[in-house]
Structures are given as structure tokens and as C-alpha cells.
Specification:
Structural class: alpha+beta
Number of strands: 14
Number of helices: 5
Shape: elongated
Order of helices and strands: EHEHEEEHEHEEEEEEEHE
Largest sheet: 7 strands, mixed
Helix content: 10-25%
Length: 251
């Protein structure tokens, strides 16, 4: 991204695609930075689950240019004094949201990472909607070139920093019933078998490589290992849930 390119703000939340929350979030961004480019990256992140969402965010943010600002709100602890609001800079991108594990994987994966605790306060701050009242204005100000030091103070690290960039669990289920895991495709050999709910699945490059109704694992378009059934619903057939463990067996 060049120095004259417009900043993009990407929204990653568990708000859902319906209801008033996403609209209010966007309105807050526009009030501070009129005309800013806003992308709805995801609004059905694993609900109340920043740990699973962290692996999904790490995979998705790699599709965006350096300089992108992410507003990340998967925040079951909103309003609690122990939950710090933070700005994270990792791999040339910035992330605004709660210090509750949501940004731990992007921080872990980055060669360099800086963290600030937000001290700026809006005139009115709802106890239950920091995404609208705090995180959105901060992201909009950063997009306008406001120095982070005027909004936040440096931290040594995130409180939920430790962890791996891979996790052998289901982290997201799409509307087809396909089950994404927190495993990067580059982290396992394609000769490996994946076991879930006592069923064994083998690698295939894509759905069409197996007959209709047959299960497989493959590397999806954002680089994560995903379990699916060709023209079927993996989640329904195996009763899978977010957080369910997946076992990787070497061939």
C-alpha cells in the first residue's frame, strides 16, 4: 500500500448480520471519518468466543493490505474493568478491540508486534457497546492519521498473548455446514488423516475430487484446514460444534 492510498477499515464481529448493531458501528465510523472505506469482513464470528475467533481473524487479515485497520469485537467481557481496550500493530496492520485473546494469534504470528492500552474516552460510553462508542472512533481517528500515542499508552504485551498459531479444533462453521479448523494447511502433511467424532477423513484438493456424499479435508481459500462433505452438511451429519477437537494422524 502506498502512502497516498486510502485506509480501509475492516469489521470483524460476532454481532450477526441482522439487527441494529453493525449499522450503529458503521455510523460511528462515519461520524468521525466521513467517506472512509469500510468492509464487512465477518459478523458471525464464533459467538462469545474470542479464543476461536482469534485463529479465524489471523487467517482472514492476511487477505488485506498493509495499513488496514481492523475493528475486532468479540467481547463477552464488555464493561468489566479487568478487560483492557487495546490497539495492536502486527505485520503492518492495526487491530482495535478488547484484550481478551481475540488478537493473540495475529500477535503471535507477527515478527514484530506493538501493543497500546487505549486511554482516550468518548463523551458518552455505553457500558455494553464499546464497539460503537470506543473502538469505532479510535479506528476512525487512526485512519485519519491521529497518532496512536495521543490515544493510548504502550503495553509490554497482551494479557492473553501466549499460545500457538495453530489449534486442532473447529473454529468456525459456515452456512454449508463446512467446519474450519484452526490448523494452517501449511502446518500438516497432506498424507495425514483427520479424525473427528470417531470418523476418519482423508485429504482431497477440492470437493469434486470425491463422490457426492463423501467427506474430506482440504485446505480452504484462506489457508486453513477445513472438513466438509461433498454436497452435504458436515456439521449436521456429525453433530459438530465450535471447539470440538480434531486429531491429526500421520500416514
Amino acid at each position: 500500500m502506498g502512502t497516498t492510498d486510502p485506509i480501509v477499515i475492516a469489521l470483524f464481529t460476532d454481532f450477526g448480520w441482522q439487527g441494529p448493531y453493525v449499522g450503529q458501528l458503521k455510523a460511528a465510523l462515519q461520524r468521525v471519518a466521513a467517506g472512509i472505506t469500510v468492509i464487512d469482513l465477518l459478523h458471525d464470528a464464533p459467538m462469545f468466543n474470542p479464543q476461536a475467533s482469534a485463529y479465524l481473524l489471523n487467517a482472514l487479515c492476511r487477505q488485506f493490505e498493509t495499513g488496514t485497520i481492523f475493528v475486532g469485537v468479540v467481547d463477552p467481557g464488555v464493561g468489566h474493568q479487568a478487560r483492557r481496550p487495546v490497539i495492536v500493530q502486527a505485520a503492518g496492520q492495526r487491530f482495535v478491540g478488547p484484550d481478551n485473546g481475540l488478537f493473540k494469534v495475529v500477535a503471535q504470528a507477527a515478527k514484530e508486534c506493538r501493543v497500546w492500552e487505549i486511554h482516550w474516552q468518548p463523551p458518552a460510553l455505553s457500558a455494553s457497546f464499546h464497539g460503537r462508542d470506543l473502538f469505532a472512533p479510535i479506528a476512525a481517528m487512526l485512519a485519519q492519521g491521529v497518532a496512536v500515542e495521543t490515544l493510548a499508552q504502550p503495553l509490554m504485551t497482551l494479557s492473553a498473548y501466549a499460545g500457538s498459531v495453530d489449534v486442532a479444533e473447529i473454529i468456525y462453521i459456515d452456512h454449508y455446514g463446512n467446519c474450519m479448523t484452526g490448523l494452517r494447511g501449511a502446518s500438516i502433511n497432506q498424507a495425514c488423516h483427520l479424525v473427528i467424532a470417531q470418523h476418519v477423513f482423508y485429504y482431497a484438493r477440492t470437493f469434486a475430487a470425491v463422490p457426492a456424499g463423501q467427506g474430506l479435508w482440504y485446505i480452504n481459500s484462506i489457508g486453513l484446514v477445513e472438513l466438509a462433505i461433498n454436497q452435504g452438511n458436515f456439521q449436521q451429519q456429525l453433530a459438530c460444534t465450535i471447539g470440538q477437537a480434531v486429531t491429526v494422524l500421520n500416514a
